[in-house]
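Reproducibility note. Readers wishing to regenerate the assembly model reported in the main text can use the exact inputs given here. Chain order matters: entities are listed in the order in which they were concatenated for prediction.
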Amino acid sequence: MTASNLDGMIISNPVNIRYLTGLTSEGTLLIEPKGNIFITDSRYLEAVNSFLTIDQEIVAYDIRSLNKYDYESFFAGCENVGFEEGYVTYEMYKAYLRTYQVNLVETERIIELHRMVKEEEEIDNVKRACMITDRCFEHLKDFIKVGMTEKEIAYEIEKFMKLNGADGLAFDTIVATGPNSSMPHAIPTDRKVEPKDIIQFDFGCKVNGYCSDFSRVLFVGEITEEEERVYNFVFNEYDYILKNLTEGLDTKELFKKCEQDYKDKEFDLLHSFGHGLGLDIHEEPILSSKHDIKLKKNMLITVEPGVYVPSKFGIRIEDTVLINKNGANTLTKSGVAICKIRG
Amino acid sequence: MTASNLDGMIISNPVNIRYLTGLTSEGTLLIEPKGNIFITDSRYLEAVNSFLTIDQEIVAYDIRSLNKYDYESFFAGCENVGFEEGYVTYEMYKAYLRTYQVNLVETERIIELHRMVKEEEEIDNVKRACMITDRCFEHLKDFIKVGMTEKEIAYEIEKFMKLNGADGLAFDTIVATGPNSSMPHAIPTDRKVEPKDIIQFDFGCKVNGYCSDFSRVLFVGEITEEEERVYNFVFNEYDYILKNLTEGLDTKELFKKCEQDYKDKEFDLLHSFGHGLGLDIHEEPILSSKHDIKLKKNMLITVEPGVYVPSKFGIRIEDTVLINKNGANTLTKSGVAICKIRG
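Running the prediction on these inputs yields the following structure tokens for the assembly.
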């Protein structure tokens, strides 16, 4: 904050509040010269007070107990108070101006940028989420039978992850069979698995709020020549990216090369090659040729090249990946060879 | 829009886009003099084009195909273009100004206010969600046994609703046993149901995107005198509110009276008496003595008085309610008499 020339900051994004304090209750965190304040409402006050420790130096207030003068006193003497312009709505922004009577300054996602490099404890949580995800995929290979619907399979995924230690889902599970797989963001339908189908999975879970993200395809019995050709292309992109990721890398050039590969084969590039993840499933950075990113040790990202053949099928391979001093590790570890199931 | 003196509008809130068009894909809807435009990205384009019908008069664009001049042409000749100040972040607001080169005007939640009064089809979806919710509660009375954890019961609720026709949950399920029930927004824990426990439930599901919302308590074997006294107070508030709700009512006075009842008994009022619901679990209006609301036929709201005795227990009764010409109906229909289970 000192570097950004801020005398205080209003933190409204609940994920940033959780990151900084551990608090999961609704409220607003004020960082001000005299100390830290958490304004919550009466529904949460008991939970907040039992969670906070003296070391955290946070005083919790019930929003109903605060009047106009309390609000104006919080940042008294502050010249520039930061706010989260990427989270705060225009309506909230105007309300903050009225309520706190201060000069509000954009903070250019300082907390989000800080969140890009993970602490050991954060990495451990993601590792645990990835282990559950891998075990779930292994379970699916036996579980899936011809005739099951996409919805039934998606439900099994959610159940398995929750009963095996996940707090919840990291995002809406994708199970897309046959031609449904040609849409990267397919929603599970009542379509039943058929012999010779391709099945695209994209799922992940949370452990202590931290996400995993993972995609694979399974082939029911057979794989066509066209599917195999596309699979090998996607796999080669995936493998090439993984082998090049390491601390210090400027990712722009890497992804320019990948984009050229897509152009050479006349495949459409429908989404980026990956994204950061942590308490949010999509965090900084975005991995594409349009973003200037220099990788740092302990960043957590996804690698997820995909090719979609309209109305026919799609193939995406995705792992959650930890950036190291000399290279990168996948934290989801399921095999990436072409996998056929009996069905 | 004509009444609001707008020449066009940028609609960014996905729930409003779904309400107006049925589209569930990510994107931005532009209402402009020449027609309607949906700007989406390549991941969704195939799904969007297969969903749209000619009657909808919406043209879908891939965001990558649009340049600076396209954006500036969309609202060419428009003086005032509305935006959703309660949804759009300050960062998006500034980007819209740069991109569309128009005068942006706050729209004071016109779409949200329009959403308050429901169409028949919307009410049918909520009714179906409520039926599933009621059936789930009936199932729980047999299912719950002493020794089960809050998490296990919450999981059963989710499973039951999804396997019985729900698209998904309307919000995070609350199962709070014993003293955990004293927090209105308790998160399910590993605490096990004990004899003589009180169990507070708050759950709901979605059907075609439309929500139900429902709270009840169950008593394991016994009920204490204090619990019975509080239950009867909450029940009387619930009953009084329900009997008075009807088209044309100004709710402010009704809830002032209820607030006075809380004061008379020295109970804290930790949350409002209810809220609108529909595609969102919390919609306009808010029901409290601080909000001037005139009820209209086919509004859908919750009625949910609750009393919380710190560190001891809490009791909330809640139904999803339809406002009629002469009165109001609960759409969740589970009984509200004190209910003891064997456990």
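We highlight two features of this model. The first strand of chain A starts at residue 8 and ends at 11. Chain A has a mean pLDDT of 94.
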